[in-house]
Amino acid sequence: ENVLTQSPAIMSASPGEKVTMTCRASSSVSSSYLHWYQQKSGASPKLWIYSTSNLASGVPARFSGSGSGTSYSLTISSVEAEDAATYYCQQYSGYPWTFGGGTKLEIK
Amino acid sequence: QVQLKESGPGLVAPSQSLSITCTVSGFSLTSYGVHWVRQPPGKGLEWLGVIWAGGSTNYNSALMSRLSISKDNSKSQVFLKMNSLQTDDTAMYYCARGEITKRDFDYWGQGTTLTVSS
Predict the structure, then answer these.
(1) In a 3-state reduction of DSSP, which class is residue B88?
(2) Separation between Cα atoms, residue A61 and residue B58, nearest integer Å
(3) CB < 8 Å from B in window 46-85 of A
(4) N or C terminus: which one in chain A shows less Cβ crowding within 10 Å?
């Protein structure tokens, strides 16, 4: 099983700040199969960034993703209040699909 | 538009079994796979299994002995069955459409809460 470790578990940012969260895999993942989801409190997850760096429909351009191999990241160039949520990375490199433990972003 | 909606029993006693239905619209089950994912209260996401467009299935090996996924294409429904339920099976259960080329979950249902308690 390919274990995904996200850091930090919780982060706090002020509006306008740049933030970066990371996702590290225990084994290499194809960049085509590394994805990010946003989950707001009480809601189901939404596909946010697919295949490492492609924004899903409706995702603001302040979000970006990068990475390769075992290290991936999600960056918000200028955080806004609506970005408060938990972000999960997810990979496929054979069964089972796995998710990271999540990074909870709080807005000050 | 693409929609998935889960429906389930809500409360089940320990050692009993459950069946959850995912009803989809806006796409055909003969063209897309459907995954099941669960989330215990306050915790992260766990992949349970998938039924592919052709009807084949794959399961999380940790739960394989207790899980069964099936579907009725004509009714646009996918079924999750789990037996020998324990309290740590208490979770929100989601179905999600599987995008086969990117191996992501591009649409999710709203989820159905399952509580395992006597």
Answers:
(1) helix
(2) 35
(3) 46-47, 50-51, 56
(4) C
